[in-house]
Amino acid sequence: MISKNKIKLIRSLEQKKYRKESQLFVAEGHKLVEELLPAFECMYIAARREWLERRYQHVTGNLCENAEIQEVSAEELQKASLQRNPQDVLALFRQRTDRPVSGSILQNQLSLGLDGVQDPGNLGTIIRLADWFGIEHLFCSPDTADLYNPKTVQATMGAMARVKVHYLDLKAWLQTVDPQTPIYGTLLDGENIYDRPLTPHGLVLMGNEGNGIRPDTAAFINRRLLIPNYPSGRATSESLNVAIATAIVCAEFRRQASMF
Amino acid sequence: MISKNKIKLIRSLEQKKYRKESQLFVAEGHKLVEELLPAFECMYIAARREWLERRYQHVTGNLCENAEIQEVSAEELQKASLQRNPQDVLALFRQRTDRPVSGSILQNQLSLGLDGVQDPGNLGTIIRLADWFGIEHLFCSPDTADLYNPKTVQATMGAMARVKVHYLDLKAWLQTVDPQTPIYGTLLDGENIYDRPLTPHGLVLMGNEGNGIRPDTAAFINRRLLIPNYPSGRATSESLNVAIATAIVCAEFRRQASMF
Question: Which of A14, A82, B124, B242 can pair with B156 through a Cys bridge, CB separation 3.0 to 4.6 Å?
Fold first, then answer.
């Protein structure tokens, strides 16, 4: 049986306030939980017998030293779960302490900057694709969706074990970056992304779903990009979803880096 | 006042069963509603005074001949809305009757095939990006998410006014397609998408979020593609979200079509 207090705790973690207080977050499903175990301290696992028997020893080793482990029925898992279709395992992990990263890192690798991306699903999807494209760091304005929101966590599909997400005052941080560093952004008046060489390092800034990149942040962009629609200039949807645009931009950076 | 019956009707349209019975669907927000007005028959509009005064005459012309129009308060809109943050206008539209499209269309233009994409948000996002990339037709297996699910509708951001979505037996339909037609699919053992020329016509097949393309459907693929991760072959997330993968593939098709 999962205690009433535990269920209350798990459900409270849908809200940022309680995540902040407890420094915990929820992850559900064996793929996700197994990917997070080596990267985050696990405090609690509620799982069906099948997962405990088949996977627990295999995947956890001594990764769960401090964790309370409970075998539960499907019905009990349903009561605690934040998902519409609860899976075989639910875990509580401790949030990681963010370590500040100097802006000089942009001289050696490509990173992403998110200026007010609101939707937790979009953030999670961006973390997943960043992992695919070997992008290690995401620099986010404080009003960007929370990494530990259950919707973000689930959408990362485990990529948050590898990609580091930093919340900071983007403007103040960008002021510390060497002005020679390429800072890219997609803007309506940008230059066709396929028309100029892209560097294997620097920062790609992406903005809020409705309002794009704030003027204060956009001022740091020194390479303005545009994803052309097709046929070019045709009247279409006004814009692409922010995760979709991020994917197209990252794919093109990596295509060029692999070719030259 | 929105009548109790109307509220009940609107809320019932979250379920496919009632959408099928009534042949109606809900759209919310001025951008979306205004994009759909020229493309779908509007049956009902509930809007704040601001929208009615500023936009109604301007955008609707005689597009709403058969529609019942109601001015409502924010509180009333909240009661009827399926969104967490209701906007200024909610409308009911009639679903379009699907007209069969011959497989020979693939000899003239690039289309998308979706084999069991489950998530309505993913479907809506794919429709939005198809519009961006000038893709007019989406061919979907019957178990693909419903175009008229409110989550799909909202995620299209209006692109469903232009992109046509057909539900059909994909396998039977593909059997009618000339075997010379390029049928692309992303598969784990595919060839690097950047290593071979892509045609400006044909079909790109995308599969279910968890299980990919069904073997029955995959058998029709004659050009197997792979989106390379970076650095190539590095251990990363196992896969990309289906909408993200579709975007990267479509962007590359259109990049090549614009260059050569």
Answer: B124
